[in-house]
Design goal:
The complex is a heterodimer. By secondary structure, chain A is α/β, with parallel strands linked by helices. Chain A contains six helices and five strands; from the N terminus they run αβαββββαααα. Chain A has one domain: Collagenase (Catalytic Domain), CATH 3.40.390.10. A five-stranded mixed beta sheet of chain A has the order 2-1-3-5-4. Classes of the chains: A alpha/beta, B alpha+beta. Chains A and B meet through helix 1, strand 4, helix 4 and helix 5 of A and helix 1 and strand 1 of B.
Chain lengths: 174, 188
C-alpha cells in the first residue's frame, strides 16, 4: 500500500495523457500584424483556447502584444508542397519544463485555398501544440488535436474548437 | 528488534528500487525528449487500401543522394531515390529517380527539427514508399508520415505509429507485399 502510494506521488507520468510534458508558467504572448491575412484566424484560435483556460481557472492566458516582446512568433509563408498546412511548437524543450518561447508557422501554399472556418480550425489546432497538447492518436476520441490532421477532425468530423477531451488535456497541464 | 528493523530496511530498499524502476519505465513511455515539430497534415488515410488506391506511385527505392534546401526559416531534405521495383500501377522504368521532399535537416548552420512520427530517409537505405506528385519537381509521402516503411532483410518494417500498416503489412516479405498491393489495385 505504502509503495503504491509512493509511486503515485513521485511518478508524474500520465500514461493516458496526450500532452507533451512542458507548460507555460506565465502567459504566452504573440504578435501578428493586423493586416496579415491570417490575423483573424490566429486570433480566433487564441480566443478559443483562452475560453478553455478560463474555464479551468488556469493562471495563464494567450495575450496579443507588440512584436518585440512577443514570446510566440507567428510566421505565414508559402513553404510550397510540403504535405503540411501548419506547424506548432514550444521550447526550449517541448516535452518538459517551462516554455519560454513558441512558434506557429502557416503554410500559405495550402492554407490560402481553405475556407475561413477551416483556417481558424487549423490555427486553433496549432495553438493547442503551443500550449503543450500533443496529438490525440485514437480516432474514437472526439478531438481537435487528432493526429490525422484537419482532413479528418475538420473535414470529416466538423470539429473546429477544443472539445471536452481537449479541455481535459489542458486541465492536466494547467 | 534488530531483525524486525533489518526486515523494514530491506522492505524500504525494495520499495525504493521498485519505485525507481517504475519511474524510469514511466519516463521511457513518455514522448521523446528530442525537440520535435507537430504539424497538421494535408492528407490522412485510414486503411492500407485507401492509401494504396490514392497513391500516384508505390515503389521500393534506394536513397542515392541527399541535399538540403532552405525555405524562409525552415530546412527541407530532398532525397534522390532510385527505383528498385515499381509495385504500383503507373509504369515506371527501372532505375528511374524521384526526388522526395521531407521537412527537417541542417543547412548553413540552420537546423529544422524533424516532424514527429516521420521516418526520415537515410542515404543508401532502401524503403517502401507510397508517393504523391506535387506541382513542383519532387514527390512527397502519402499522409505525411504514413507512406514510408523500411525494407530490412527483404521484409517490410513499419514504424510503431503506423497503426493500420503495422497491423497488415509489417514484417511481411517483399514478395507478399507485392501480391497484397496488386490485389488491392486489381479493380482500378
Amino acid at each position: 500500500m505504502f509503495s503504491l502510494l509512493f509511486v503515485m506521488l513521485i511518478n508524474p507520468i500520465q500514461t493516458n495523457a496526450d500532452v507533451f510534458g512542458g507548460k507555460w508558467t506565465s502567459s504566452p504572448t504573440y504578435y501578428l500584424s493586423t493586416s496579415n491575412a491570417y490575423y483573424s484566424n490566429i486570433s480566433a484560435g487564441a480566443s478559443r483556447w483562452n475560453t478553455q483556460l478560463s474555464a479551468i481557472s488556469a493562471n495563464i492566458n494567450i495575450q496579443y502584444v507588440g512584436a518585440i516582446s512577443a514570446s510566440i512568433s507567428v510566421n505565414t509563408f508559402s513553404y510550397g508542397s510540403t504535405g503540411w498546412n501548419a506547424m506548432g511548437s514550444s521550447g526550449p524543450v517541448l516535452t518538459s519544463g517551462t516554455y519560454t518561447y513558441g512558434n506557429i508557422k502557416i503554410n500559405t501554399s495550402y492554407m490560402d485555398s481553405y475556407s475561413i472556418t477551416k483556417k481558424s480550425a487549423i490555427c486553433t489546432h496549432e495553438w493547442g501544440h503551443v500550449l503543450g497538447i500533443a496529438h490525440t492518436m485514437s480516432a474514437s476520441i472526439n478531438s481537435l488535436m487528432y493526429y490525422g490532421g484537419s482532413s479528418v477532425y475538420f473535414d470529416d468530423w466538423g470539429i473546429s474548437s477544443p472539445t471536452q477531451y481537449d479541455k481535459t488535456q489542458l486541465n492536466l497541464i494547467y | 528488534m534488530n531483525t524486525i528493523k533489518l526486515k523494514s530496511n530491506r522492505e524500504l530498499i525494495f520499495i525504493l528500487l521498485a519505485s525507481t524502476i517504475l519511474v524510469l519505465s514511466g519516463c521511457s513511455m513518455s514522448k521523446s525528449s528530442q525537440q520535435i515539430n507537430s504539424v497538421d497534415w494535408t492528407d490522412h488515410y485510414n486503411t492500407v487500401d485507401e492509401m494504396t488506391r490514392n497513391s500516384d506511385y508505390i515503389i521500393i527505392a534506394r536513397v542515392s543522394n541527399q541535399r538540403y534546401e532552405e525555405r524562409h526559416d525552415l530546412v527541407f531534405t530532398l532525397s534522390e531515390v532510385t527505383v528498385v521495383k515499381n509495385i504500383g500501377l503507373k509504369p515506371i522504368p527501372e532505375n528511374q529517380k524521384f526526388t522526395v521532399l521531407q521537412t527537417g535537416g541542417i543547412s548553413n548552420g540552420i537546423e529544422t527539427n524533424p516532424i514527429e512520427d516521420v521516418l526520415m530517409l537515410k542515404n543508401n537505405n532502401t524503403y517502401l514508399l507510397f508517393l504523391r506528385e506535387t506541382n513542383e519537381s519532387y514527390v512527397i509521402l502519402m499522409g505525411g508520415f504514413q507512406g514510408i516503411a523500411s525494407i530490412i532483410n527483404g521484409k517490410v518494417s513499419f514504424p510503431d505509429n503506423h497503426s493500420f500498416s503495422k497491423n497488415q503489412l509489417d514484417q511481411i516479405p517483399v514478395s507478399d507485399l507485392e501480391y497484397t498491393i496488386s490485389y488491392i489495385l486489381k479493380d482500378q
